[in-house]
Amino acid sequence: MKLGYHLGYWGSGPTPGALEAVLEAERLGFDSVWSAEAYGSDAFTPLAWAGASTSRVKLGTNIVQMSARTPTATAMTALTLDHLSGGRFVLGLGASGPQVVEGWYGQPYPKPLARTREYVAIIRQVLAREAPVTLDGQFYQLPLQGGAGLGKALKPTVHPLRADLPIYLAAEGPKNVALSAEICDGWLPLFFSPKADAFYRAALAEGFARPGARRKPEDFEVPASVPVIVHDDVEEAASWIKPALALYIGGMGAKAVNFHHDVFARLGYEEVADKVQELYLAGRKDEAVAAIPTSLVEDTSLVGPAAKIREELAAWEDTVVTTLLLRGDAGSLAKVAEALS
Length: 341
Description:
Largest sheet: 9 strands, parallel
Number of strands: 13
Low-confidence stretches: none
Structural class: alpha/beta
């Protein structure tokens, strides 16, 4: 199993020590470095900054929100970064949720799977550069129908470095996971648990079995963000992860549409997820954090003494996950990498 480093997205400002951590990840032999975006910092710029100081690690977005940019704008940035990095770029895409899509970007959210299919199809055309890019879709029309009536189908002026630049899809629900296996080169799970491996294998298998599926299981990548904290006290280690879990389960989405909440409900924590959401949305955030049992953390993370982590790692190695994406500062990466070795 490969290791990657996840920068995430900024909080109130640039993450201190981020570049030092990226350089340490490359020194330690990590396979990849990833960035994210929510509604503050963007995913591409920090990755370009990191790529300028590295020479080997792959550079991936986990994730770029599709509603933030038109498909051709995303393709332009992807092919530019791929050239500048010497073919190290991986484009990770995601639909995000209706609160961000409609509240921040002012774009409609309904039918995200069909929208994703069109979005990826346009990017593939740009990267192939075989003909002017056209699509008469439900969500995207190139050239635009209406307007000034002067739109012209175009090819990118830049010849992409790789026509097969990898595209990964972030997904949590079974239909979206199946779509990633059908049209993409990898799947980016969030809050993965070895206990849910059979569920996700079935969803991926459905996608692989569809006519024209792009990949097979053996050449499909699954980099999963997995919190890893090496510490003698399991409860204390888990306490550092619980606030982020409470945020995602309780506050990252509307009460009726929170895909992160649904992940934990499927994992057997429906009552916990409901309670955390209720408390969080009521502004009782400390109580929401306290409502998360340590077992939930252990199901989706690796926490505790190094020996415990190494023992539990075997379960992760038997799953569809191909890369563990770690977080932390430069000083903690070597300790975590040693625990996982």
